Amino acid sequence: MAEQSFIPVCEPLLGGRELEYVTKAVSAGWISSSGGYVKEFEQAFAKYLDVPCAVTTTSGTAALHLALVAAGIGPGDEVIIPAFTMIATAFAVCYTGAKPVFVDAEAASWNIDAAQLEQKLSPRTKAILPVHIYGHACDMDAIDAVADAHDLLVIEDAAEAIGSRYNGKLCGALGDLACFSFFANKLVTTGEGGMVVARDERFAEKLRYYKNLCFPVSGPRRYLHEDIGFNYRMPNVLAAIGLAQLERVDFYLECRRKNAARYDERLRGQRGITTPPSLPYTLSSYWMYGILIEDDFGLSRDDVMAALAAAGIDTRSFFVSMHRQPALEKYGCDVSGAYPVTDQLARKGLYLPSGSGLSEADLNRSVDVLLSLRR
Ligand SMILES: Cc1ncc(COP(=O)(O)O)c(C=O)c1O
After folding, report:
1. Probe target for ligand 1 pocket from 131, 160, 188, 342, with the most ligand atoms within 8 Å of CB
2. Which of 106, 115, 234, 305 has its CA 20 to 30 A from that of 292?
3. Which residues are CB-neighbours of 277 under 8 A, at least 6 positions away?
4. What is the pLDDT of residues 54-103, one digit of tens each?
5. In angstroms, what is the span from residue 155 Cα to ligand 1's centroid?
6. Residue nearest to atom 10 of ligand 1 (CA)
């Protein structure tokens, strides 16, 4: 029998002007963060989102930390985050000395349940940090209503949601601040990297100040620092890749959405499989195509993943809930509550090969093998 090829869960697609721009940066000797591509990438990103300010960082995690610092979050403060998210959302809050407070996911969207926000607020709450999980937009109107009523900032974790829309508006342009990741599996990648965007110019200076070791943003470079800053500067070679990637964002979105439509067509209504949510207010980027392996599938999620791996099909399990993270418990987070929806997602969820370059044949093989595993 012919050997089956390996189908990766996600691979970067670098088919645009990446090499041309990187070559230009290297040829000119501009490889540090001072090069022109950093500014060009930031300007193009701000234009794409139609926001006044975009600031590059070294990762999505750094972007979250920087946004929280620029928002003035610090020790003694609390920030509301979903229990169902990637650990970086929580860690970034911890870096500031503040406490992340968890809210369960909503079964209909897999995102933070806006109806449970009020009960998690305290006089120390300073911000809500919703995460557009796997590219599905959060219910931002409901989140904004709570934020407005209690004078809280909204900081979007849009790491997985470049190009996702909420009621027609791009995710990342909805909160006071928003953070993106350009890790290799992201829709737009620089290998490692991130971006903070702000709707209000007043954050721009702070973001630039703190990301560059609190050197003064303008004026002469005196080696005298008023505050503790960070080195979150993206190098020019990575910004060169980012700019080339951003030029093709619509193509990448089309690829991801085509994958999702094909998966939906083959998997919707199949016994034992729940396909990803798609509520009317969202147009998802489908960063990853996640499914739930229900009990009537006849095989556990972990056994399904193992069988798919044996067939050369790469998958990933869903995130483990924040209230089950030893690091967060040690840090002093309240992990005592019940998070039933998040626990179910964590137990049943996996995502299938979802890269922009996934072929129809590989997608179909993934589905064929998956369906053949049912008992
Ligand atoms: C929701 C979410 N937030 C934050 C991050 C952190 O981004 P990075 O890996 O670039 O630090 C990720 C990364 O995958 C993510 O999925």
Report:
1. 160
2. 115
3. 108, 109, 110, 136
4. 999 999 999 999 999 999 999 999 999 999 999 999 999 999 999 999 99
5. 14
6. 60
